[in-house]
Amino acid sequence: MADSKMAKAKLGEFLAAVSADYEVYGPKADNGVVTFGRIASADELALTYSNSTVSAKELFLPKTETVYEFDGENFVDDPLPEQKRVVLGLRPCDCRALTLLDGTFDCERVQDPFYVTRRANTVLVALACDRPLSSCFCTATGGDPYGEEGVDVLLSDEGESFLAKAVTDRGKDFLEQYGKFFSGKAAGKWAERAKAASGKMTCDLSLAEVSQRLDGLFEDDMWERVSQKCIGCGTCSYLCPTCYCFDLIDDKTATGVKKIRRWDCCMFQSFALHASGHDPRPITAARFRQKIMHKFNYHPQRCGLNSCVGCGRCVRACPVNLDIRQLLGDILAAAPSAASE
Amino acid sequence: MKNPYRPILTTIQEITIENEAQDLKTFRLGFCDADEGNGFDYQCGQFAELTVFRVGECPIGIASSPMDEGILEFTVKRYPDGQVTNALHNCAVGDRIGVRGPLGNWFPLERMEGKNVLIVGGGFAFTTLRSTIRYILHEANRKRFANLVVLYGARNPGELLYKDELKAWQGRDDIEAHITVDKADDESWTGHEGFVPAVLEQVAPSPKDAIALVCGPPIMLKYTLPVLEKLGFGPTEIITSLEMRMKCGIGLCGRCNIGGKYVCIDGPVFTYEQLQALPAEM
Ligand SMILES: Cc1cc2nc3c(=O)[nH]c(=O)nc-3n(C[C@H](O)[C@H](O)[C@H](O)COP(=O)(O)OP(=O)(O)OC[C@H]3O[C@@H](n4cnc5c(N)ncnc54)[C@H](O)[C@@H]3O)c2cc1C
Ligand code: SF4
Ligand code: SF4
Ligand code: FES
């Protein structure tokens, strides 16, 4: 697709124009913590971050969301999130993560109408990653700092300007709609830039085979060992762009109730506890195993892909420095024969 | 787009207290909207999420039979700390209940056609088996199956579910019903005495051209499955139903898996062969 370019000086004007048609979301920095939120003007945008502290998942699966309201007599019409939105400046790993969430929330069997509506109404204008962190490992998972999976428009920060490239038809329409801010046919050095970025990745694992290796490891005594430090705080899951477990709870209204879909986490103690008092995963090791197996064995079995995009958030934020790369490396290094024992 | 979280409205039409401990009640529900009721097409072995509005939701097996037109029944055990089961037990006739379903897979009734059917149940896990027995006994279906042998056990006579039906089954010649209690504290008891696996060994039903459906508490399953194997039932001829904690019931919330299988969509019905392939996470 034709390349184009936008001078950074035009960003403010561009944002004002886009804001007239869309709700605009982007990365905002507060004391070094980067999260996604509504953007009113260009100076609110934090575009020099390496990766956001919190993923963009929240814009599609909010921490809490009403999935229906019953007023005591009837159901209130579902307020579907129909507003048109643009998310600007998220990283390719977070876009790829959304394609993985699609496999769960928008599959043949069932569709979550809130998630599906948001996905359909949102243009993803991603910002390619030129400064991956030492904790990033997207390339090990099949992603790339300049990856295009799930991306509508890809931007690359060239210093004075952004290179822009439409990836999908939706992206093409978007660039055309705001064509006056972009100089057409600007031949950017995409290939060189992408190569330079992936050259900065420090993790040389290849996770394609992890799933197979895990097949025989459910009963292995490694889980006790590798989970020893874990305090079950759930930080890793909450920050992860592909974790999606949720709870359904009742929030009483004056005469009825709102059913709320709320983030949950398989690392929490009572996650699988039965009403009878029986708990199929009574210890940390069992819950930790569930998390790893879900991402790297069950999800690939069901959807064909690991549900990890290597964004490195869990590595950076774990309070006890549990590094998932080290664990995956150990699993890969275990002799295949031992793994299938 | 259909909202998969939203239940169908029903009202409680009848409540039956099933046992002496009074912690098991059967709720008969009627759909508020006839169209929605007609659309609720279920099979034996499926479950639904029942909602007590302002309290919550829980998964319960469907105890009525698809042949019971216009009738939808659930038998619910009250747990002392269970929010929804307590709230359900506090409900009265006329109260509104939400129903989301039918959910999950079902007993392979098509594969069972023409075969002898053995049904083994223990405790209150008998509910979806009762649905199946009612289905097979229906005059439109009975000819499609060969012998029907039922073995059902409870702690004592007062804890047996569906007492009137059990009595009726024992008076029929197209079903062989064995009822057992762990301990007969009542002198008038005329059925078997002893645990389900032991009675099963005595009754020794033939595995020839037969399929066995088995549901019960984990401890009963643990001792019953080997007896069935010993009798000669193969791992694909033994079928059971599993329970895990659930929230969504539709394969989204990530709550109910055993290894890579989601009990809510890949189950709750599994063959013994599938069960043996699952990791020890139950
Ligand atoms: C497919 C399927 C079919 C089912 N069919 C039936 C059926 O036909 N009939 C039936 O009665 N049940 C059935 N169940 C079980 C039923 O779903 C549970 O009993 C029910 O979900 C309990 O919900 P609750 O809201 O009352 O309990 P909750 O409020 O969820 O109570 C459980 C919570 O309370 C606490 N708690 C409760 N008891 C204890 C304890 N002893 N020790 C420690 N903590 C405790 C824990 O925090 C626990 O998570 C079925 C389950 C499944 C999955
Ligand atoms: S962030 Fe670390 S300590 Fe917390 S649950 Fe995850 S692995 Fe365990
Ligand atoms: S598991 Fe860790 S590295 Fe992988 S996507 Fe989740 S937070 Fe990122
Ligand atoms: S109950 Fe939600 S995934 Fe099975």
Description:
Chain A: GO terms for molecular function: iron-sulfur cluster binding. Chain A: Residues 221-251, 298-330 form the 4Fe-4S ferredoxin-type domain. Chain A: This is 4Fe-4S ferredoxin-type domain-containing protein. The complex is a heterodimer of chains A (341) and B (282). In chain A, strands 3-2-6-7-8-9-1-10 form an eight-stranded mixed sheet. In chain A, strands 5-4-12-11 form a four-stranded antiparallel sheet, with no helix packed on it. By secondary structure, chain A is of the alpha+beta class. Chain A is 31% helix and 20% strand. The longest helix of chain A is centred in the last third of the chain and has 20 residues, at 284-303. Chain A has two domains: 4-198, no CATH class; 207-340, no CATH class. Chain A has helices spanning 11-21, 92-105, 113-120, 169-177, 190-199, 210-214, 222-226, 235-239, 284-303, 313-317, 324-333, 336-339, and strands at residues 3-7, 23-30, 33-38, 64-70, 75-76, 85-90, 122-127, 153-157, 161-166, 183-184, 246-252, 257-263. Mean pLDDT of chain A is 92; it is low at 337-341. By secondary structure, chain B is of the alpha/beta class. Helix content of chain B is 23%, strand content 29%. Chain B has eight helices and 15 strands. Chain B is globular. The structure holds flavin-adenine dinucleotide, iron/sulfur cluster (SF4) (2 copies) and FE2/S2 (inorganic) cluster (FES). FE2/S2 (inorganic) cluster binds next to loops of chain B.
Count of domains of chain B: 2
Strand order, sheet with most strands of chain B: 10-9-8-7-11-12-15
Category by helix and strand content of chain A: alpha+beta
How far apart are the termini of chain B? 35 Å
Bound molecules: flavin-adenine dinucleotide, iron/sulfur cluster, FE2/S2 (inorganic) cluster
Biggest sheet of chain B: strands, sense, closure?
7 strands, mixed
**Unreliable segments of chain B (pLDDT under 50, ≥5 consecutive)?**
none
SSE topology string of chain A? EHEEEEEHHEEEHEHHHHEEHHHH
Largest β sheet strand count, sense and barrel closure of chain A = 8 strands, mixed
| Content-based structural category of chain B | alpha/beta
pLDDT averaged over residues of chain B: 95
Number of strands of chain A: 12
Helix fraction bin of chain A: 25-40%
Quaternary: heterodimer
Number of helices of chain B: 8
Cα-to-Cα separation, first versus last residue of chain A: 50 Å
The number of domains of chain A is 2
Succession of helices and strands of chain B:
EEHEEEHEHEHEHEEHEHEEEEH
The greatest inter-chain interface is formed by: A-B, 48 and 38 residues
CATH class of the largest domain in chain B: Alpha Beta
The proportion of residues in beta strands of chain A is: 15-25%
